[in-house]
């Protein structure tokens, strides 16, 4: 089956009304669902997928594979014991209606997926977990090792539910605690947390569970259980007994047998582990707590289009005045109306009338109830306002340059596909404010060193020389920005390049902890490959007078266990929205070349 084509060049920014609502019904995960042997309760209304009746005029949904007819008898058999299920399957086959592989597999007609739906981002709970949510009973989550190493605070993220740690999980934590990597640091932090929880407790307390709120985490109302005795469970023959994953699966099956009626759910970041558990009939889920958004279509874009009747509804008590800020004259408008509460501070607004009137581009500066103050923007698409020879080619690039050239904005995030101009705009703004206005001392460039293909091995030289192969994108953009006047000749161009190179420092992320940057222009490239904890480490390096720019494309994540919803770039965009000293713009159109634009469409 060919892979679906990923859209890489959206035509325009989505309107606010076009974004899917978070409270609406979720689309169904698949067209065909295999019924479990155990009775599966109906999903909760929050997660349920509503299936609308198909009108007679429309073409009905036709299943591609042969499916048995789901009668009342078959529906009753599905709730019976496995022996009855097998007998029913044999009876159906005897009547001339063969079931695939000898099992009764009803086909459920679901509503088609919307165009913007991403199946791998929707948090689908297991049937056991949904049933516990319906009945209001607490669950017991069995944690795999990779969950603890991914998020050391995951022990306290399960609210009123209990947490169970198999002995093999502790063994794997011990194996990964050595070294200076992020995984080793997380393993050591989990070990220290467990030691603090276990200290000053008797053996009976460990057997009955340790309160997770013991260390002051009031949100964690459940208890922590350890595997205190050998638990045996029959797994299918042929599975290696000594493998850690199989031992954890055996613990889950044993817990289900011991605590009948209790919801036992395995939580793992390992996809194959979850598939293996579901194949054995055990409930398994991904760790959802690190996901900022379930669907990245809901990610804050930083831009909103005003309705056509905005000025008629909000212009009754309109006030306007002019101010000089940062050497530039700007017009301010104070508007009041029903559309204002949906806006955020530093969000860009635009209105492009279709009747030939002049468009309006502004930025929200203050919000107080239903009253907002908007400021007009500087037009960086005009050549007189060029930034180091670079002008904005579209509306979103103009918004981005307004953020990058604003000294009051300390943190900027730029998101967009390849070729939208993220690196070029950031580098041009940095050179203009370091060499022309001297607002910052130097430019510091860093990025995550995650290779796309096979690693080429160790690199020789100093830190900057080791990082230079990863900085090919900045070298390409510097060649564009180094085009000086032809009057200077070769000597003039060489002197300009040496001056620019002396003000740009390339640093590695591995040595950022403990540093403080004062009056620096810090550019973090490929920020989508950072975890939320790594992003926090970098952003907290900022000292007085420092500006941080995060660039990235969440469709190109190379770090294992990171998704679009749990990326550090998504994390900071969601957390910083609405702060008066930060801004975000999602760049929409590619401006690299006609060849690159065509290739992104057809390849």
TrEMBL record:
Protein name: AAA family ATPase
GO CC, one annotated term: cytosol
Gene3D superfamilies: 5'-nuclease, P-loop containing nucleotide triphosphate hydrolases
Alphabetically ordered keywords of this record: ATP-binding, Nucleotide-binding
Lineage: Bacteria, Pseudomonadati, Pseudomonadota, Betaproteobacteria, Burkholderiales
Family recorded in the similarity comment: In the N-terminal section; belongs to the PINc/VapC protein family.
PIN domain ranges (all copies): 139-275
Pfam family membership, one: PhoH
Molecular function GO terms recorded: ATP binding
Keyword check for Cell inner membrane: no
């Amino acid at each position: 089956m060919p892979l679906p084509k990923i859209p890489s060049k959206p035509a325009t920014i989505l309107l606010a009304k076009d974004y899917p609502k978070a409270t609406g019904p979720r689309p169904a995960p698949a067209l065909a669902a295999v019924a479990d042997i155990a009775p599966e309760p109906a999903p909760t209304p929050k997660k349920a997928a509503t299936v609308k009746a198909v009108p007679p005029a429309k073409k009905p949904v036709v299943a591609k594979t042969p499916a048995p007819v789901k009668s009342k008898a078959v529906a009753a058999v599905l709730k019976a014991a496995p022996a009855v299920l097998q007998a029913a399957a044999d009876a159906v086959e005897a009547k001339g209606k063969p079931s695939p592989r000898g099992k009764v597999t009803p086909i459920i007609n679901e509503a088609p997926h919307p165009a913007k739906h991403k199946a791998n981002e929707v948090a689908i709970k297991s049937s056991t977990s949904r049933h516990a949510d319906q009945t209001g009973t607490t669950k017991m989550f069995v944690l795999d090792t990779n969950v603890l190493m991914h998020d050391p605070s995951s022990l306290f993220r399960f609210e009123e539910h209990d947490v169970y740690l198999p002995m093999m999980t502790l063994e794997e934590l011990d194996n990964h605690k050595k070294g200076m990597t992020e995984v080793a640091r997380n393993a050591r932090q989990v070990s220290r947390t467990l030691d603090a929880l276990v200290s000053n407790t008797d053996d009976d307390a460990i057997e009955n569970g340790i309160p997770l709120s013991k260390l002051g985490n009031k949100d964690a109302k459940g208890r922590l259980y350890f595997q205190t005795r050998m638990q045996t469970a029959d797994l299918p023959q042929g599975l290696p007994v000594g493998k850690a994953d199989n031992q954890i699966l055996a613990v889950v099956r044993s817990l289900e047998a011991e605590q009948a009626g209790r919801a036992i759910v395995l939580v793992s970041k390992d996809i194959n582990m979850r598939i293996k558990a579901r194949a054995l009939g055990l409930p398994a889920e991904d760790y959802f707590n690190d996901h900022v958004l379930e669907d990245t279509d809901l990610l804050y874009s930083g831009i909103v289009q005003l309705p056509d009747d905005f000025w008629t509804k909000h212009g009754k008590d309109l006030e306007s005045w002019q101010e000089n800020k940062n050497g530039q004259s700007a017009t301010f408008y104070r508007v009041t109306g029903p559309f204002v509460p949906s806006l955020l501070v530093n969000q860009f607004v635009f209105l492009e009338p279709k009747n030939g009137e002049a468009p309006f581009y502004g930025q929200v500066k203050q919000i107080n109830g239903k009253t907002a103050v908007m400021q007009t923007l500087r037009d960086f698409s005009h050549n007189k306002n060029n930034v180091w020879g670079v002008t904005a080619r579209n509306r979103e690039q103009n918004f981005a340059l307004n953020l990058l050239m604003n000294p009051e904005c300390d943190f900027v995030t730029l998101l967009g596909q390849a070729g939208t101009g993220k690196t070029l705009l950031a580098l041009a703004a940095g050179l203009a404010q370091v060499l022309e206005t001297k607002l910052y001392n130097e430019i510091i460039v860093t990025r995550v060193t995650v290779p796309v293909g096979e690693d080429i091995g160790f690199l020789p030289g100093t830190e900057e020389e080791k990082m230079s192969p990863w900085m090919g994108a900045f070298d390409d953009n510097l060649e564009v920005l180094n085009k000086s006047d032809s009057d200077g000749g070769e000597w003039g161009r060489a002197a300009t390049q040496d001056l620019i190179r002396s003000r740009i420092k390339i640093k590695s992320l591995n040595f950022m902890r403990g540093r403080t940057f004062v009056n620096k222009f810090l550019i973090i490239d490929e920020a989508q490959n950072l975890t939320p904890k790594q992003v926090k480490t970098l952003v907290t390096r900022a000292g007085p007078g420092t500006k941080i720019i995060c660039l990235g494309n969440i469709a190109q994540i190379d770090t294992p266990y990171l998704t679009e919803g749990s990326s550090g770039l998504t994390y900071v965009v969601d957390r910083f929205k609405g702060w008066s000293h930060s801004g975000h713009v999602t760049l929409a159109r590619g401006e690299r070349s006609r060849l690159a634009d065509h290739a992104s469409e057809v390849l």
